[in-house]
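Here comes a specimen:
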Amino acid sequence: MKYGLIGEKLGHSFSKIIHEQLADYTYDLMPLSKEAFPGFMEARQFCAINVTIPYKEAVLPFLDQIDRSAEAIGAVNTIVNKNGKLFGYNTDYSGFRYMLENNRINISGKKVLILGKGGAAKAIFAVVRDMNATEILTVYYRPHPDTITYEKCYAKHTDAQIIINTTPVGMYPEIEKTPICLDDFSKLEAVVDVIYNPLYTQLIIDAKKRNIPAVGGLEMLVAQAKYAADIFLDTRMNDQATQRIYQSMKQERSNLSLIGMSGCGKTTLGRKVAQYLKKEFIDVDAEIVKKIGMPIQTFFSAHGEDAFRELETQTIRGLADKNNLVISTGGGAILNERNIDLLRMNGHIIWIKRDLENLELGKGRPLAPNLDAVTKLYETRLPLYKKYAEAVIENNTSDLDNTTLALAQAFKNLVE
């Protein structure tokens, strides 16, 4: 391996995709067990590598020289082999600072909680300190020197203004977990999560529900990779490279989820916009039919709506950690807020709005057999469509091509 990434588990890593867009080299992912790690470092058979969990501190004894800022942080994520000597650097610092500054998150004078105490946390602590935070507290799951427990955090420090998660809690595949409950943090001004898979963790979603500015870790990942590539190649790329790749990855990886009444055209529009955006189309109701082996109307009659809604949430959960999809939901998916959270983790939600008189009726829709039933459903669900939609597309004409283009543009605007 000439260039690449080492870590214990790398199945979720986007680093290969990013580095091979940044520079003209092959970038390999090399998972290393704790037993294999020392031998790899001693062999020094690489030109330059990045380092991730759990080796950002473990690499230090193998290095011949450590950059001053990385030494002060106490963790290294970038190593260059110069004529057999290993030089260590930390680009997590630069990447995280870039993300804060680019998103106008002001640290100066603020009380900051950092969740976790690993290698990334050390770099982030240094950034927050250098950006003049008034108070910095490291929160750890058990008693440990220079940290506070979550119990003490909830009891004494709910006046924090910034929360930064550096733990893996909420990362794929356990996307429904969150490292901290935000309910009592009444003075929060921003939440930052260094996790980038999913794009928006449950912590980020919880913050946005409270209208708190929140940022996920993909931008930091791209920025630190850019700074690492600069070190690898002894060059200096423009920061525009970071934004170009970041926006490209968001567009490619983000899902588009469609909500709206049954008969509003979600499936037809979904197929067309999926083709336009080069994404895979998934119809939630069709996925449910595959699972149950019968029409939804038959399942409703046999098991009732509650059983169907539970199955619907299970199906959406199975899609939530996937990427590059257009997802057409059933008309009642918005009745369970958990479905909305799951759909938001890797994408954006657009309401396909069609006037009541234009909705298709019947066709096996158990809750919409006639106009009276549809009218009652429409009145009940309308506030929820308004609440959860990030954008609205009117679908009251037969001009599918222009409606598809409008839908695609609305999605692109949300991703940007």
The CA atoms of residues 368 and 377 lie 8 Å apart.
